[in-house]
Amino acid sequence: MNLLPVSSRRMNGVGYENGVMYIQFKDGSIYAYENVSESEYQNFINSSSLGSALSTFDKIHPYHRV
């Protein structure tokens, strides 16, 4: 799985594979968000504010540190 570089104050990269979205934060930690559809992933990476989009994901998708 490859991470796409993103322009964000909190995140370095975002990737998607088999229903899981991966986010690498500025501190180097990577979190996996489960049960994410491909369209949700596309909406996330195309969001005008990744921080706001992440706040929504935190509430609706289970996640854990990888």
How many structural domains?
Answer: 1
User: In terms of per-residue confidence, which ranges show pLDDT below 50 for 5 or more consecutive residues?
Assistant: none
> How many β-strand runs?
5
Integer average pLDDT: 96
- Cα Rg: 10 Å
Give the CA-CA distance, first to last residue. Answer: 13 Å
Total helices: the number is 2
Beta-strand percent range: 25-35%
The helix/strand order is EEEEHHE
Helix content: 25-40%
Biggest β-sheet: count, sense, barrel? Answer: 5 strands, antiparallel
**Major β-sheet strand ordering:** 1-2-3-4-5
Shape: globular
Structural class: alpha+beta
Polypeptide structure, described:
It is a single chain. The chain is of the alpha+beta class and 66 residues long. The protein has one domain (4-65). 29% of the residues lie in helices and 33% in strands. The protein contains 2 helices and 5 strands. It has helices at residues 38-45, 50-60, and strands at 4-5, 11-17, 20-25, 30-33, 63-65. A 5-stranded antiparallel β-sheet has the order 1-2-3-4-5, with helices on one face. β1 and β2 (11-17) form a beta hairpin. The mean pLDDT is 96. Residues 7-56 form the KTSC domain. This is KTSC domain-containing protein. Pfam families: KTSC (PF13619). It comes from Clostridium tyrobutyricum DIVETGP.
